[in-house]
Write a structure and sequence with these properties.
The complex is a heterotrimer of chains A (309), B (366) and C (358). Chain A has 309 residues and is mostly helical. Chain A has helices at residues 7-33, 41-59, 62-86, 91-110, 135-140, 144-162, 164-174, 176-182, 186-212, 224-234, 239-261, 268-286, 290-296. Chain A has one domain (7-121, 128-296): ABC transporter involved in vitamin B12 uptake, BtuC. Chain A contains 13 helices and no strands. Chain B has a domain at 70-325: ABC transporter involved in vitamin B12 uptake, BtuC. The chains are: A mainly alpha (309), B mainly alpha (366), C alpha/beta (358). Chains in contact: A-B, A-C, B-C. Chain A: It comes from Sneathiella sedimenti.
C-alpha cells in the first residue's frame, strides 16, 4: 500500500474499539461526579448488550434496541441505587455484586439467542462526503452510536461545567452535607446520576452486540467495563480526557495487533501488555500535580450519605 | 432518606450506637429474604426451590471431603480479603489482588521450576517466602507510583493485574513448559517437597488453610492491639487527625499495599503448590476480585472476613452441585450469588440504622 | 445407586420440605460432562454440549446426562470428583487443562471411566481423545491457496500451543502446494474468546493485506469482519455461514456426537477400554461445512480430492519434503511427521511470517 492509505482502516478500527469504552466511561464519570462509585459497569454493559441484541433481533428496530439497552442498564443501576443510596449498603461491594448478578442475568436472558446473527448497525453514507479521501470514511462514514458517543462527551462536559444542574451535581459529589444543607435533594440527584451511568453502560454494551460484533455471546464484554472504570481515574474525572483515554487504549490495542500481523519479532504477550503499561505511564506523568486532580476528583466518592434529620 | 407514600412515612434513622444484636441478626434476616426470593427465582425457572436451596447450601457440605473443599476454596479468598481489608480501612484502594496473587505464584514457584531436583525441607518454606515477596513486590509498584507520583492506585493496581496474567502466559507458553509435556502450556507437577502438606488425609485441605487462619488472627490482633493497626484506622477515618498525630500517610500506603501483596502472593503460591500442583495458564478463577466482596461482606473485620469467605466459597460449590444434580446453568449461580450478596449488603443497614414507620400528615423535609 | 449419606438433621429437613432425592430414580446410568466454557460460547463447548445431547437422545431413559459449564481448569478437580463420588459411570472432561485433575480423580475412583479430551496422559480407566482438525485445515489450505489474490492469508491465533501451530502449518503447507507465493500472517490474541479482540485481529490482518481469514478462536467475530470487508473466511468449530453467508468458504466443524455415543455404549455394555483416539475426517470427528457457491468448480474438485485422499490415506498433510520456517528440513521426501512430533509441534513451516512466541 502506498502513502497514508493504511492509516484510514487503522483509525476506523480504533474508533470501534474505543466507542464502548467512551460510553461506559462517560456514564460512570457522571455517576462518580455525584459522589457514587459503581463498580458494576461490566454487569450493566452485559445486560445492556443482551437487551439491545434481543430487541434488535425481535423488532428489527435499532433505535428501539439502543433504547432498550439504555433502559436495561438504567434498571440495573436503579437496583444499585436502591441498595447503596436508600439502604446505604457499601458501594464497592454492591457494585461488584452487581457485576456478578449482571453476568448471570445476561447469560440467562440470552440463552435462546446465542448463535443468531443480526445485521450490523448501519453506517452513515452521505454521497460525496463519505467518499472523500481520508476524512470521508472517518468523519462521514460512522454509525450513529459513534457520533452519539462524541455528542455525549460534549453534552456531559457542557452540563457539568456550564450549567446550574452540573454545578449542583458537582456540589453533591464534593460535599453532600453542604449540598443537603442548601436544600438540594442529594439522594434524588444521585439516583439520576447513577441511572444515567447505567444507561450509558447499557449503550456501551449494546455497541458491542449491535455494531462492533453484531451477535450475542455470553460475557462478550470481556472485561471492558473494568477498563472503562480505570479510564475515569486516568482522565482525572474530566470528560474530554475519558475520550482521549479510550482512544489511546483502543489505539494501542489495535496497533499491537498490527505489529504482530506485520511480523514484529516480539512475543505477543509483551505486545498485549502495552495498552496497560501505557495507561499506567501516562497516569504517572499527569498525576504529579496533586491540586489539579483534587479540583476534578469528587471528594465524596464512595461515601455514604445520610441526612442528619 | 424518605420513601414517600402518604400519609405514612418510612424513615431510616441513624442509631446512636450500632446495634450488637443486629450484627448477628442481619445475616439471618438476609438468609430468610434469600430463601423467600429464591422461591420466586427457582419457581420461574421450573425448579423445585427447596431442592435448589438444598443443593446450594447443604449438599455441598454433606461429606467430610466436601466440607474440606469449602476450606480449600475459601483459603485464597480469605488470604486476599484480609490483606485488602487493612488497606481499605486506610482508604487505600488496591483492587489488584488478582495480579499480586499471580505474581506470588510465579515468583514462589520459580524456585521449584529452576531447582526441580531439590528435596530439601526448606524448599516449601522458601517458596512461601518468595511468594509473599513476589506479591509484595507487585503491590510495591502502585505504592511507589502513589507515594512518589500521586498516581491513583485503583488504576495502577488494576492494570497490573492484566500485566501479571500476561507474564504468566509468557512463561507458561515458553520456558516454563514441562520438557516432557509435548509443549503443552503446563509446568512439571510439583515434587512432594515443593507441595503444601495436606492437613487431613483423604482431602485436599492443605497448609494454606492454616496460613489463612493465622492471617485472620494476626490481622485481628494487629488492628486491635498494635500501633500500626491504630495508625491505619486513624489515617482511614480521620486523615487530618492522623497528620497532627505525626502518622505518615505515605508509610501507611506502603504498609497496607505490601501487606496485601504479601498475603495475596501467599494465596497464589498456596494454590499452585496446593490444590493445583503445577503452574498452569490460569491459576485463579478471579479469587483476587471476589476477595474484594468478601472483605466488605465481612465488614472489613478479620472474623467477619473469615465467615464471608466461607459463605462465598459455599455459593460457588453450591452452584456446581446445582449444575450437576439439577442441570441449572452456571448463569443461575451468578444471579443467585448476586441476590444473596444484595440481601446481605442491604440488611447491613440495620446495624447502624433503624426503620421507623411514622403516621404523619405532613412531610417535613428540612 | 449410591446416595450420599445424609445426616439425620439434613434428611429430616429435606423430607419435611418434600424432597425425595433419588426417589424417582430408575436404574439409569449417569454420564457426566465437564466444560471449560459456557455452553453459550457457540464454539468449543457448544459442540461438546451437542455431543452430550446426542448421547441423551440416543439412550433416552437408559442414561442420565449432566454437565457443569464454565469450570475453571485450576478448580476442576473437586467438580470431577463430585461426579465420580455421585456414582457417574462415565465422565468426559473436555479441555486440556483438566488432564491432571482427571487423572488424580481417576486414581481414587477406579470403577469410574473417564474420557479426557486433547490430553496425552492415560490410565486404565482414563481414555484420551482428540480430533485431527489439521486435516480439515489442510483441505482449507488448498482452497485458500487457490482463492487468494493478494497471496496473503491471515490467521487469528489464540495461544501458541501445538494444537494451534499444527493448524497453521497444515494450512500453510497445503496453500503453498498450490500457490508457492502464499505467505501466512498470524496475530495472537491471547484469549480463546473475546469477540471484540478477535474481530480487531481480523481487521488488522486484512489491513496488512490478507484476503482470507482463518481463526483458531471461538467466536464468529472474525467472519463477521471478513463479511463486512469483502474478504474470505473459514468458520471454526461450527458452521458459521449464518454470520458470514458471503464470506465463509467453508468451516471446520468439530463433531463429537459419534464418539460420545460410541463410548457411552461401550461403557454401558462393559466393553469400554482405555484407548487413545485421534479421529479426523475419516472418523467424522472433523467435518467440513458446505462449500461456498462462489468457489469455482475446479477448486471444489481439488478440495474434495484432498479430503478423500486424506480419508483413504493417500494424502498425508505433514508429508515431506518441506522446510521449517528457518530453512532447515522439516520432513524429507518420502517421510512424514509422526504423531509424537505433531503432538508437540512448536515450530512454523516455511511461508509463515513472524516468529512463533516461545
Amino acid at each position: 500500500m502506498s502513502g497514508f492509505d493504511w492509516v484510514v482502516p487503522i483509525i476506523l478500527t480504533v474508533i470501534t474499539a474505543a466507542t464502548p469504552l467512551v460510553f461506559a466511561g462517560i456514564g460512570e464519570l457522571v455517576t462518580e461526579k455525584s459522589g457514587v462509585l459503581n463498580l458494576g459497569v461490566e454487569g450493566m454493559m452485559l445486560v445492556g448488550a443482551v437487551s439491545g441484541f434481543i430487541t434488535a433481533l425481535v423488532t428489527g428496530n435499532y433505535f428501539l434496541a439502543v433504547g432498550a439497552a439504555a433502559l436495561a442498564g438504567a434498571i440495573m443501576a436503579f437496583l444499585f441505587g436502591v441498595l447503596t443510596l436508600s439502604l446505604m449498603a457499601n458501594q464497592v461491594a454492591t457494585g461488584l455484586a452487581l457485576t456478578l448478578f449482571g453476568v448471570g442475568l445476561s447469560a440467562l436472558m440470552g440463552q435462546e439467542f446465542v448463535g443468531e446473527p443480526i445485521a450490523a448497525l448501519s453506517k452513515l453514507n452521505i454521497t460525496g462526503l463519505s467518499d472523500l479521501p481520508f476524512i470521508g470514511p472517518i468523519i462521514f462514514g460512522q454509525d450513529v452510536l459513534v457520533y452519539l458517543s462524541f455528542v455525549m462527551v460534549a453534552l456531559v462536559s457542557w452540563l457539568l461545567y456550564k450549567t446550574k444542574a452540573g454545578l449542583i451535581l458537582r456540589a453533591v459529589g464534593d460535599s453532600h452535607d453542604a449540598a443537603h444543607s442548601i436544600g438540594y435533594p442529594v439522594i434524588a440527584i444521585r439516583y439520576l446520576a447513577v441511572m444515567f451511568g447505567g444507561a450509558m453502560s447499557g449503550i456501551g454494551g449494546a455497541y458491542l452486540s449491535l455494531a462492533y460484533t453484531p451477535m450475542w455471546a455470553e460475557n462478550m464484554t470481556a472485561g471492558r467495563g473494568w477498563i472503562a472504570l480505570a479510564l475515569i481515574v486516568f482522565a482525572t474525572w474530566k470528560p474530554g480526557l475519558v475520550l482521549v483515554g479510550a482512544y489511546m487504549f483502543g489505539g494501542i490495542t489495535i496497533l499491537q495487533l498490527h505489529a504482530q500481523a506485520a511480523g514484529l519479532n516480539v512475543p505477543s504477550q509483551v505486545l498485549s501488555m502495552l495498552p496497560y503499561l501505557a495507561t499506567i505511564l501516562v497516569l504517572v506523568l499527569i498525576s504529579k500535580d496533586e491540586s489539579r486532580i483534587r479540583k476534578h476528583a469528587p471528594a465524596c466518592i464512595g461515601k455514604i450519605f445520610h441526612p442528619a434529620a | 432518606m424518605k420513601l414517600r407514600g402518604p400519609p405514612m412515612l418510612l424513615k431510616i434513622e441513624k442509631r446512636a450506637e450500632y446495634s450488637k444484636t443486629m450484627v448477628y441478626l442481619t445475616p439471618i434476616i438476609a438468609l430468610v429474604l434469600t430463601v423467600l426470593s429464591s422461591i420466586v427465582l427457582f419457581e420461574s425457572l421450573g425448579v423445585n426451590p427447596i431442592e435448589a436451596l438444598y443443593q446450594f447450601f447443604i449438599a455441598p457440605l454433606d461429606t467430610k471431603y466436601e466440607f474440606s473443599e469449602l476450606f480449600v476454596k475459601a483459603t485464597p479468598l480469605i488470604l486476599c480479603a484480609i490483606g485488602l481489608s487493612v488497606g481499605f480501612r486506610a482508604n487505600v484502594w488496591n483492587i489488584g489482588a488478582e495480579g499480586q496473587l499471580t505474581m506470588g505464584a510465579i515468583v514462589g514457584s520459580s524456585l521449584f521450576i529452576y531447582f526441580p531436583e531439590t528435596d530439601s525441607i526448606f524448599l516449601l518454606p522458601a517458596m512461601i517466602v518468595m511468594g509473599a515477596l513476589g506479591g509484595a513486590a507487585w503491590a510495591a509498584i502502585p505504592a511507589f507510583f502513589k507515594t512518589r507520583f500521586n498516581a491513583n492506585e485503583i488504576l495502577t493496581s488494576l492494570m497490573l493485574v492484566y500485566v501479571a496474567l500476561l507474564i504468566l502466559s509468557l512463561l507458561i507458553h515458553g520456558p516454563w513448559r514441562d520438557p516432557a509435556g509435548f509443549n503443552f502450556p503446563e509446568s512439571e507437577t510439583f515434587s512432594d517437597s515443593a507441595s503444601m502438606p495436606i492437613l487431613i488425609s483423604g482431602t485436599r485441605m492443605h497448609f494454606g488453610t492454616l496460613m489463612a487462619l493465622l492471617a485472620v488472627f494476626g490481622a485481628w490482633i494487629m488492628m486491635a492491639r498494635t500501633l500500626i493497626g491504630f495508625q491505619v484506622k486513624v489515617i482511614g477515618e480521620a486523615p487530618r487527625a492522623g497528620g497532627y498525630a505525626g502518622f505518615s500517610r505515605k508509610k501507611i500506603i506502603w504498609f497496607t499495599l505490601l501487606f496485601a501483596g504479601a498475603l495475596s502472593g501467599i494465596a497464589g503460591l498456596s494454590e499452585v503448590s496446593g490444590p493445583i500442583g503445577q503452574v498452569v495458564p490460569s491459576i485463579s478463577p478471579g479469587y483476587g476480585f471476589t476477595a474484594i466482596i468478601v472483605a466488605f461482606l465481612g465488614r472489613l473485620h478479620p472474623v467477619g472476613i473469615f465467615f464471608a469467605g466461607l459463605l462465598m466459597a459455599l455459593t460457588y460449590l453450591g452452584g456446581e452441585t446445582a449444575q450437576i444434580n439439577l442441570g441449572l446453568p452456571v448463569a443461575v449461580t451468578g444471579v443467585f450469588q448476586g441476590m444473596v450478596l444484595f440481601f446481605l449488603l442491604a440488611c447491613d443497614v440495620l446495624v447502624h440504622y433503624r426503620f421507623r414507620l411514622n403516621i404523619a400528615r405532613k412531610v417535613t423535609s428540612q | 445407586m449410591t446416595r450420599k449419606q445424609f445426616s439425620g438433621l439434613v434428611s429430616a429437613v429435606a423430607l419435611a420440605g418434600g424432597l425425595l432425592m433419588g426417589g424417582t430414580a430408575a436404574a439409569e446410568d449417569k454420564v457426566g460432562f465437564i466444560y471449560v466454557g459456557p455452553i453459550g460460547d457457540h464454539g468449543w463447548t457448544y459442540r461438546h454440549e451437542l455431543g452430550r445431547q446426542a448421547v441423551q437422545n440416543e439412550f433416552g431413559d437408559k442414561v442420565k446426562t449432566s454437565y457443569v459449564e464454565s469450570v475453571k481448569e485450576s478448580s476442576s478437580e473437586p467438580v470431577i470428583r463430585q461426579m465420580a463420588a455421585d456414582g457417574y459411570k462415565l465422565i468426559f472432561t473436555t479441555s486440556f487443562g483438566f488432564m491432571n485433575p482427571t487423572l488424580k480423580v481417576a486414581k481414587q475412583f477406579p470403577d469410574v471411566k473417564f474420557e479426557h479430551a486433547t490430553g496425552y496422559k492415560r490410565a486404565d480407566n482414563v481414555s484420551t481423545y482428540s480430533a485431527r482438525f489439521y486435516e480439515g485445515r489442510y483441505v482449507v489450505g488448498k482452497i485458500a491457496g487457490k482463492m487468494t489474490k493478494s497471496n496473503v492469508i491471515g490467521y487469528v491465533g489464540s495461544f501458541p500451543i501445538p494444537e494451534v501451530v499444527r493448524g497453521i502449518n497444515a494450512m500453510t503447507l497445503a496453500a503453498r502446494s498450490v500457490n508457492p507465493d502464499v505467505t501466512v500472517k498470524v496475530a495472537w490474541v491471547n484469549t480463546w474468546y473475546d469477540p471484540g479482540k478477535e474481530g480487531d485481529a481480523a481487521k488488522a490482518l486484512i489491513d496488512q493485506g490478507a484476503d482470507i481469514i482463518l481463526q483458531h478462536t471461538d467466536s464468529p467475530a472474525p467472519l463477521q469482519v471478513a463479511e463486512n470487508r469483502g474478504v474470505w473466511a473459514v468458520g471454526q468449530a461450527s458452521d458459521m455461514a449464518k454470520f458470514a453467508p458471503k464470506a465463509q468458504l467453508t468451516a471446520i466443524i468439530d463433531n463429537w456426537d459419534g464418539y460420545y455415543v460410541a463410548r457411552t455404549k461401550a461403557a454401558l455394555d462393559g466393553t469400554w477400554k482405555s484407548e487413545d483416539t485421534w479421529g479426523g475426517l475419516k472418523s467424522g470427528m472433523v467435518e467440513l461445512a458446505p462449500y461456498n457457491e462462489a468457489i469455482p468448480a475446479d477448486v471444489i474438485a481439488l478440495a474434495e480430492e484432498t479430503r478423500k485422499g486424506i480419508e483413504d490415506g493417500s494424502i498425508v498433510p505433514f508429508a515431506g519434503p518441506f522446510n521449517k520456517q528457518d530453512g532447515s528440513v522439516g520432513a524429507k521426501e518420502g517421510e512424514a511427521l509422526d504423531d509424537g512430533t505433531l503432538l508437540g509441534l512448536n515450530w512454523y513451516v516455511e511461508g509463515v511470517d513472524g516468529k512463533l512466541p516461545k
